[in-house]
Design a protein that fits this description.
With 299 residues, the protein is α/β, with parallel strands linked by helices. It has twelve helices and ten strands. It has a single domain, classed as Aldolase class I (TIM Barrel, Alpha-Beta Barrel).
Length: 299
């Protein structure tokens, strides 16, 4: 039986329906991440430095849904640029689930720690109004510096409860990061444990599904799976190239991960300003990558 559906004892009936919607028939998460805003604009400049307009970004996201996202189990979109237009105009396929990102771009720093912000007005109820099947929220964590009383941990607890009460599954995305003054060597040594401890503290505070960085190895992936305590986790691509990500996904899935959420590794070299070029590249370059990723998540 697929781990994504059998190892989630905390899921309500409605949350289980959301989980099923973002998974392949075999029960593995396969989500195209397209909620980036500034990051997506950065790869659309076509090399001439001309700023990308909001309308151009909307058009690019629509093409990304049409020629890539509609071939996946689910697509992750933002409520600031893409929604509700891409739902209302019929671009999103009825067979592709919609994950709505609740986090605003960027972060604020307080006493050396990073904190994300919610998009204004985006509540669990608003996610439903936008047509969302599932919600996603990003938090930065340094579990060696933050405990149950920390703002980020408290937000995880509060939002998972609010989403569950609204019958909405929440994907908890965690990014750990290097502190100012921390050496590259010290951070690299700590990184696998930080990912595992982030999973542990998130699950302890209500997380039902996790989106996590690849922790670096087979052994570290197994440690994350153990830390997650039966809660399914998906690997995020973190901007690495496609070939690297495929290897990471294969290793993670072989050691307990339940799928992948891929963004830039799929489409970062396919999003020209030109619609014609986008259609060609998304079809001929990104779609084969998605098929390869689908094979990798099936293990």
């Amino acid at each position: 039986m697929p781990t994504t559906l059998t190892n989630a004892p905390l899921l309500t009936t409605q949350e289980r329906r959301g989980m099923s919607a973002i998974c392949t028939p075999a029960g593995r998460m396969l989500i195209v991440a397209a909620d980036q805003r500034n990051g997506m604009k950065a790869v659309m400049t076509d090399g001439d430095g001309t700023p990308v307009t909001q309308d151009q970004l909307v058009e690019a996201k629509a093409d990304l849904v049409s020629y890539l996202g509609n071939h996946a189990a689910a697509i992750l979109l933002d409520p600031e640029v893409a929604l509700p237009q891409i739902v209302d105009d019929g671009t999103l396929s009825r067979d592709t689930a919609l994950v709505v990102g609740m986090d605003a771009s960027g972060f604020e720093e307080v006493d050396g720690l990073r904190y994300t912000r919610f998009v204004d007005g985006v509540t669990p109820e608003r996610v439903r109004e936008l047509g969302g099947d599932v919600a996603k929220m990003l938090w930065y964590l340094r579990p060696d510096r933050q405990d149950e009383a920390d703002r980020a941990v408290r937000e995880i607890r509060e939002l998972t409860e609010a989403c569950s009460s609204a019958g909405l599954l929440l994907i908890v995305e965690i990014l750990t990061y290097q502190l100012e003054g921390e050496s590259d060597e010290d951070y690299a040594a700590a990184f696998p444990g930080l990912v595992a401890d982030s999973a542990r503290i998130s699950v302890a505070n209500g997380a039902r599904v996790l989106k996590l960085q690849y922790p670096g190895s087979a052994e570290a992936s197994a440690a994350v799976t153990e830390a997650a305590g039966g809660v399914p986790w998906a690997v995020l691509s973190a901007g690495v190239d496609h070939e690297t990500f495929i290897d990471q996904v294969r290793t993670a899935v072989a050691h307990g991960a339940s799928g992948a959420m891929a963004g830039r590794s799929l489409w970062k070299d396919s999003l020209s300003v030109s619609h014609e070029v986008r259609e060609e590249k998304l079809t001929e370059l990104a779609q084969p990558r998605l098929r390869e990723l689908a094979e990798a998540v099936e293990g």
